[in-house]
Design goal:
The chain is an all-alpha fold. It folds into two domains: about 1-35, no CATH class; about 35-90. The chain is about 80% helix and about 0% strand. The chain is built from four helices and no strands. The chain has helices at about 5-15, 20-30, 40-75, 75-85. Helix 1 (about 5-15) packs antiparallel against helix 2. It is elongated and about 80 Å long. It starts with a helix and ends with a helix.
Length: about 90
């Protein structure tokens, strides 16, 4: 076990409450060079997250408009105010 792997192993075993086998498996996996992330991977992940947040913001706006419209249409006083504002009633 490499020095870095041994350090990760000790931290997991002592502070996080993992068993010896679990700590060794996690420490070995974290030290493997195959698990490294490239800049391209991070940029792709950032793009996906940005797209998801953009989509969520749009959905929140749609829900807000629906809630406001439902509130206005079900409130009789609001209907009077809207009709006066649009010039439909005196």
């Amino acid at each position: 076990m490499a020095s870095r792997t041994f350090t990760i192993y000790n931290i997991l075993k002592s502070k996080k409450g993992f068993t010896e086998e679990e700590a060794q498996t996690i420490a070995t996996a974290m030290d493997t060079k195959e698990n490294l992330v490239t800049k391209a991977d991070l940029l792709a992940l950032e793009l996906k997250v940005t797209e998801k947040f953009s989509r969520m913001e749009k959905m929140h706006l749609v829900f807000f408009v629906i809630i406001v419209a439902a509130g206005l249409l079900t409130n009789p006083k609001a209907l009077d105010i809207i009709s006066k504002f649009l010039g439909m009633a005196k």
